Amino acid sequence: MDMTPGKIHSIDFKSETLEETYEIQYYLPKNFSDLYKHRVVITFDSQDFFRYGQIERAYEKLRKAEEIDRAIIVGVPYPSVDWRYDYFDPNGEHHEAFITFVAHELISWVDENFPTLKVGTSRTLMGDSLAGSFAFSIAAKYPATFSNALALSPFVDDAFIERFKSQMTLMHLDLYHTIGLEEDDFETISGEQADFLTPNRELNEYLSTQMLEYTYRELDGGHIWKSWKPELEPALRHFLS
């Protein structure tokens, strides 16, 4: 496995439980050393977090200024739009199975191959749109394993809100949740008109009353990386400092 610092690497990961092979990306910071324990950031839609969000640049900038702790960035990219709906959409056919894969196989692989802190509070999940819903789904189901999650404009419906309502306790969680003010009427990647703003506000209404760490931000802009990219620095500062 390539451990060259300062580069985005990619491997094929064979899941024993799902009997599928998935691409996994990982970024080791420029000053990476296995003498130190690292926090872990796992991004879903990872090719977009690297390409459009430039998350590794945001990390290096904050790390150089000594504003955040050491971390590695692991990513799950999507091979196609259809795959994204099957796996990341809360109502997708493989959504639940993929949550289990991340919570058991993927995090075990991360902890075995990299010097990590191996506790839930040192792990942060991040995703945009459907991938943001996926990040929140994992955190809701495994709050002790993944205590921190960022969702940028997640897809939300009543069943998704019920995922949080059905949990006995959310007190382990630290959630960072954003939605764009222009997302009350926009065209999705599949060409359908959608209102994300209203259901996200309903999720906020519920989470605001619960015992957890919770940050909610309504952003100027729409369902695009132009709106999301500026949130990565404050989110990394929030979770890694």
CATH architecture: 3-Layer(aba) Sandwich
Mean pLDDT: 97
User: Distance between the terminal alpha carbons, to the nearest Å?
Assistant: 29 Å
Share of helical residues: 25-40%
What percent strand?
A: 15-25%
> How many β-strand runs?
10
Find the CATH superfamily.
Alpha/Beta hydrolase fold, catalytic domain
Number of helices: 8
Task: Report the principal-axis shape.
Answer: globular
Radius of gyration: 17 Å
How would you describe this protein?
- With 241 residues, this protein is an alpha/beta fold.
- The chain has one domain: 3-Layer(aba) Sandwich (Rossmann fold).
- The chain is 37% helix and 24% strand.
- The strands form two sheets. The protein has an eight-stranded mixed β-sheet with strand order 1-2-4-3-5-6-7-10, sandwiched between helices. Strands 8-9 form a two-stranded antiparallel ribbon.
- β1 and β2 form a beta hairpin.
- α6 packs parallel to α7.
- The model has no long low-confidence stretch (mean pLDDT 97).
- This is Alpha/beta hydrolase-fold protein.
Which helices and strands occur, and which strands form pairs?
Blueprint: E1 8-15, E2 20-27, E3 39-44, H1 46-51, H2 55-64, E4 71-76, H3 81-87, H4 95-113, E5 123-128, H5 130-141, E6 148-152, H6 158-165, E7 174-180, E8 186-187, E9 193-194, H7 197-207, E10 213-219, H8 225-240
Parallel strand pairs: 3-4, 3-5, 5-6, 6-7, 7-10
Antiparallel strand pairs: 1-2, 2-4, 8-9
Helix pairs in contact: 2-8, 4-5, 6-7
